[in-house]
Design a protein that fits this description.
This protein has 214 residues and is an alpha/beta fold. The protein has a domain of 148 residues. 49% of the residues lie in helices and 17% in strands. It has seven helices and eight strands. The protein has a five-stranded mixed sheet, sandwiched between helices. The longest helix has 21 residues. The protein is globular, with a radius of gyration of 17 Å. The chain starts with a strand and ends with a helix.
Amino acid sequence: MSVTASLTSFIDFNCVLGPQRIRVPAGLRAMYDDPTRHPWAYYGPMIEAIRGGLAAGNLPERLERATADAETRVTDGWFRGQWRHYRELSEGALLLSHRVGPVTVFPVPTGSWTHGELTLRVSPQLGVQRRDGRREAWFLYPKERPLAQATADAALLVLSDVLGAAGSDLVPRVVDIRRSTGFVLSRNRSLATLSAYVAGEAEMFARFWELSAA
């Protein structure tokens, strides 16, 4: 059975340890299989506000508009709590902007990554040129679970593989928006060991996805 999921979902899976992990693919499968649900609509407007605001130089205005729109949806069950998440994301995005300063934003390649039965949709939201000239591909992570280097590394390897397949030399960065923190692969990280770990995670994700249908 083939399984297709987003890189964000794979990060969520990496962040949970022990028997509780099966709840992540089970919850995702229930959401994806429901034709009335639109998963991209929950965080999508805020991600677009951050991307558009950084590109146009009007980030505060874009964030305020997205948050105000979320506050009008409080009675919609599918969007329960969205306004609270958007407030936290706005605060994190503003702090992130202050930290990195003015940036040049440009499109970045997207693609997919496959191992065994699992295919991940990989869409870094923006390319960023930093003030010192560094050029990076940013993947924005909006969820509540805090990221650490250990839980970002799997996504960074997947991003690196997708960018490399597209012929891009951009440095992949996973950004935990709420905590205004970005992660890149450490130079002394064993890529062979990390690749084996990511392969195992992909196989477990697909297996748990299959079990959740039983």
